[in-house]
């Protein structure tokens, strides 16, 4: 295969990934099909801060090591910042040294996943099962017992401390 053919294939693949990313960002605006909570783009913008809107509704990624939730170690649950659905128990949080709040397991039925090609290679995107909001990605390099690293954007989460 010639270098020109390889370049054409790479450009075509990148263009298709970009179209898929645009469709995904438009798709997230209203919520995912099957997600019970479906709001208009205007309703999401009114509900969320601009930064949280970019993460939850446009699949953006927050700057690493900026989330105050990295230092959150109390008992409780981490909820979706978009719809307040409980997502992770604080007992499953750990320091992955990546700069984002990380968990080894979500609450049962709280999240859904799909393959995302935004970076040009497949990753597993994690989103809220209730509103379809983008939370982050899950990787297979986490601790036991699951071996998973649910690497979440702090802007997509809200912490609710357990009552004493």
Tell me about this structure.
This protein has a single domain, classed as Peptide methionine sulfoxide reductase (Metal Binding Protein, Guanine Nucleotide Exchange Factor, Chain A), CATH 2.170.150. The protein is built from three helices and nine strands, in the order H-H-H-E-E-E-E-E-E-E-E-E.
Question: Descriptors for this entry?
Answer:
9 strands, 164 residues, 27% helix
Brief account:
The chain is α+β, with helices and mostly antiparallel strands and 164 residues long. Helices cover 27% and strands 24% of the residues. It has 3 helices and 9 strands, in the order H-H-H-E-E-E-E-E-E-E-E-E.
The CATH superfamily is identified as Peptide methionine sulfoxide reductase
Low-confidence stretches: 4-12, 14-29
- What is the CATH topology descriptor? Metal Binding Protein, Guanine Nucleotide Exchange Factor, Chain A
The total beta strand count reads: 9
Which geometry do the CA atoms define? globular
Give the count of structural domains.
1
Layout of helices and strands:
Elements: H1 3-30, H2 41-47, H3 50-58, E1 76-80, E2 86-89, E3 93-94, E4 102-103, E5 111-116, E6 123-128, E7 134-139, E8 149-152, E9 157-161
Antiparallel strand pairs: 1-2, 1-9, 3-4, 4-8, 5-6, 6-7, 7-8
């Amino acid at each position: 295969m010639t270098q020109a053919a390889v370049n054409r294939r790479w450009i075509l693949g990148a263009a298709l990934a970009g179209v898929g990313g645009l469709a995904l960002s438009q798709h997230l605006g209203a919520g995912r099909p099957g997600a019970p909570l479906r709001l208009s783009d205007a309703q999401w913008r009114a509900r969320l801060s601009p930064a949280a809107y970019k993460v939850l509704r446009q699949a953006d990624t927050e700057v690493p090591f900026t989330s105050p939730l990295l230092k959150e170690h109390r008992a409780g649950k981490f909820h979706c910042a978009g719809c307040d659905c409980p997502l992770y128990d604080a007992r499953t949080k750990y320091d992955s040294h990546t700069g984002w709040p990380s968990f080894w397991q979500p609450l049962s039925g709280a999240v859904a996943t799909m393959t995302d090609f935004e970076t040009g290679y497949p990753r597993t995107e994690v989103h809220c099962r209730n509103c379809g909001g983008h939370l982050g990605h899950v990787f297979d390099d986490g601790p036991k017992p699951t071996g998973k690293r649910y690497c979440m954007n702090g802007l997509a989460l809200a912490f609710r401390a357990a009552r004493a």
